[in-house]
Design a protein that fits this description.
Collagenase (Catalytic Domain); 4 domains; mainly beta
């Protein structure tokens, strides 16, 4: 629903009444060097065929004319809003005009994107300015209204489906200079007019998908498709498959790309997450269809929460506690947990290789996936790598493992069962899979120094060996003190005096914070005797 209200976003000298229609292009008198234009603000995202490159542009669509829009720094608008822009007009190298805004006024604040919790009627237009390719209307109909429709119905838990029509092949004039991305507004307008002449009125549908044969023009040849984010229109550049159709329609719903974070601590060591200290890979989340997902797996729980899908089945563990997680694809039970810490929200989910997730490898299913939304870093959600190596192909926090959040608390993951997996947030990790113990522990006294030596266990994720010392007896870990921590196989301690008996405990710690029970011994002035 559109609200015709005048909402000044920046201070403006304009006094045109709210809702007053201005001509589509240059409209009112302005100081020398400036123009005033009224139109619809849109944000367009183009996705590369290689699954890595992309382009994003802010646009002002005024009738059949499109301007590249540069907004003032830090300034945002809602895509689909009617706006009046005062600024400087220049011509870009590839032809279209660019408008650098000095002042903006919103005349109707609204998004034209349909809700994500309803059934969408979609018009698919097949159009060409060079001649049709091999795609048939029946093949397009199957892809959108059988394959993509089934995918969305599963992933949205029945909240969203796709119905509609496919036109026969239509002939259109094509974009100026062959610039099908830059002049995408022209191809859409031409296609809608041609479709309407055959009885397909795009105005009676919720969304329009324009498919045209792949263009060899450098302006668009590298893109598989592009879409308004959010919005109601999609362009497919010679690609009609699940990956592209699902992804571009996701942009229409307002979804950003699914990022992945690669993080280093102050020593340069790769870690799951630290802020600051992370770089973001635009498409790096391989397990979310909005990333570089050739698996075309479910949208993540974080993305689904944005769309209102399954939010009632998300457990809030911000205050601590446990939740039993069913697979994200499940239609019943709790399917995700979230933990809010300051500006960060962590999302935890479990995937299984079935349905839309059928192609997922063990790197996405042998544990839980953890993503973070951090408003102090930027917008969007980032997948964390819990086998930190710069490759997010195996990103899960494995069953029986624990991870210490930057805020200090621990996220522990239980073992997988037929019913799901239990995740727990608490002040200490759960000791479900303690690492192996040291072996061959021995100690000799020389010159009042107790020299300890041992053999480390074969655990590949061993992080440290800890040595505790108590001079008063009892459990050295409970009543003594930590006197050594490292990854070596020896330590030197003060030796007890003649007649004194001390307690020593040597334990191991894995990379997830789990600590073993330890190997204990009694130290005297003569050496160490194992308990």
């Amino acid at each position: 629903m559109r609200r015709a209200v005048a909402l000044p976003v920046l201070l403006s000298a304009l006094t045109v009444a709210a809702g007053t229609a201005l001509p589509a292009t240059v409209a009112v008198a302005a100081p020398a060097g400036s123009v005033t234009v009224e139109g619809t603000y849109q944000h367009v995202v183009a996705d590369g065929r290689d699954g890595r490159s992309h382009a994003e542009r802010d646009l002002l669509v005024a009738g059949d004319k499109t301007y590249r829009l540069t907004l003032p720094k830090g300034h945002t608008l809602e895509p689909g809003s009617k706006v009046r822009v005062k600024g400087r007009l220049t011509t870009t190298a590839d032809g279209p005009q660019a408008l650098t805004a000095d002042q903006t006024t919103v005349t109707a604040s609204t998004s034209d994107a349909p809700a994500a919790t309803t059934q969408h009627r979609v018009l698919v237009i097949l159009a060409s300015w060079t001649g049709p390719d091999t795609l048939t209307p029946d093949a397009a109909r199957h892809q959108v209204f059988t394959d993509a429709d089934g995918w969305y119905r599963e992933v949205s838990y029945g909240a969203l489906g796709l119905t509609g029509d496919v036109t026969p092949w239509l002939s259109i004039a094509g974009p100026d200079n062959g610039l099908c991305f830059t002049n995408h507004r022209q191809t859409m307008t031409q296609a809608k007019e041609a479709a309407k002449a055959l009885g397909y009125d795009a105005a009676s549908y919720d969304r329009t998908v324009l498919y045209h044969p792949r263009s060899s023009n450098p302006d668009c040849s590298g893109y598989a498709g592009w879409a308004y984010q959010p919005g109601t229109e999609v362009w497919l550049n010679g690609v009609m498959d699940r990956r592209t159709s699902v992804h571009e329609l996701g942009h229409n719903l307002g979804l950003r790309h699914a990022h992945a974070y690669t993080c280093q601590d102050t020593t340069g060591t790769l870690v799951a997450y630290v802020s600051p200290g992370c770089t973001s890979n635009e498409y790096g989340d391989q397990f979310d269809a909005m990333g570089a997902s050739f698996y075309v797996g479910h949208f993540s729980a974080a993305q689904k929460a944005q769309l209102g899908w399954g939010s009632a089945r998300h457990a809030d563990l911000s205050a601590g506690g446990s939740a039993d997680l069913a697979p994200l694809s499940s239609t019943t039970g709790t399917v995700a947990a979230k933990v809010v810490e300051g500006t960060r929200t962590y999302w935890v989910e479990r995937r299984v290789a079935s349905g839309a997730d059928a192609a997922l490898p063990a790197g996405g299913t042998a544990g839980v996936l953890v993503r973070v939304t951090d408003t102090s870093v930027g917008k969007g959600h980032g997948l964390l790598d819990h086998s930190p190596d710069g490759d997010h192909g195996s990103a899960v926090l494995g069953f029986g493992r624990a991870w210490q959040l930057p805020g200090g608390r621990w996220l522990s993951v239980g073992e997988a069962t037929a019913a799901g997996v239990t995740v727990t947030v608490g002040d200490a990790p759960l000791d479900s899979t303690a690492p192996g113990e040291v072996t061959a522990l021995a100690g000799k006294v020389r010159k009042r120094v107790l020299g300890l030596a041992w053999t480390n266990p074969a655990d590949t994720d061993l992080a440290a060996v800890r040595v505790y010392l108590s001079t008063s007896g009892g459990d050295a870990r409970a009543v003594g003190s930590l006197v050594h921590e490292g990854v070596g196989t020896s330590a030197s301690l003060p030796a007890p005096g003649r007649g004194e008996t001390w307690t020593v405990l040597v334990s191991t710690v894995d990379a997830h914070g789990n600590e073993s029970a330890g190997v204990a011994g009694t130290a005297t002035s003569r050496g160490l005797t194992l308990s």
